[in-house]
User: Fold this.
Amino acid sequence: MSNTASLRPRPVASEHTPLKARNVAFDWADTPLHWIPGDPDSTHTINVLHLLLPAGERWFVHVYKQVLPQIRDARLREDVIGFIGQEAMHSQAHDDVLPHLERLGLDPTPYTAQVDWLFEKLLGDRPPLLNAWAVPPLPPGRASQWWLMERVAIIAAIEHCTAFLGDWVLNAEALDARGADPTMLDLLRWHGAEEVEHRSVAFDLFLHVDGGYRRRVRTWATAFSALVFLWQRGTRFFMENDPSLPDGKASFREFFRAGREGVLPAPGAMARLVPQYLSRTYHPSRYGSTEQAAAYLAGSPAATAAEARPAQHPAHHATQQPTQHPTGAA
Ligand SMILES: [Fe+2]
Ligand SMILES: [Fe+2]
Assistant:
């Protein structure tokens, strides 16, 4: 028997949960600019989520609609449709925070315009080099399939990070102890719980349609480096444009301080994401707790209020109007 079997991704059994989008809504009227009282650095470090996720998660949905026709496993297809529904809601919920920040004097548009360009143009349906050379859309065939697989792998890599952040925020008791705004905490924990709930979907999809280890390493390096770059840049943007901080500057010292105090994830825990994801036996189900996520969602003010609201059906639209894959694969 080959010993390579011991190096394959090993999921934890019985972690599967049916996914549904919750039609949440948040009232930001009483949320202060520094929603972690007295800690603008940590507030704005977490606020970067509102800059990146609206365009980023819209892009997940865009890419997954293209890959849907290539899924040959009924349960995985259902999971991907559930994932699409949840990510569409996440994108919208974070987008809804931006006008509130603007009302408080912090216009996010200069940064979000760049993030929109990144996801819609650079990571759009043409590989970046073809974009740069203004080559027309890719014809059906191997190049477009290669680029689709590359993007599916990038999403799997990002989802390792979002599952980590989801697990972190569900357990970040320091935020409660500091008196963080309850509405913002509920947004972060509702989102975090759904990230934990669907943490295996993107990686399972990547394994199903490709799963190549070199691609996993390459796209992880790209995605992780890009996230670190965008995050520090976003934090600097908020600190420098915060009207209440005339000399606002992001600092690594504050970042390490907040990590030690549990108000932000610890840098060491973030560094461990790298060997985790690159392990040959990595599977997302081995990290985080579905049970804890379900328990939070059962008591979340936004998620429970959503039960009484008519459901939106982004997943339904995804199945009714899939973007046909350029190869015509079905
Ligand atoms: Fe999400
Ligand atoms: Fe996600």
Q: What stands out?
A: The CA atoms of residues 39 and 258 lie 9 Å apart. The first helix runs from residue 40 to 67.
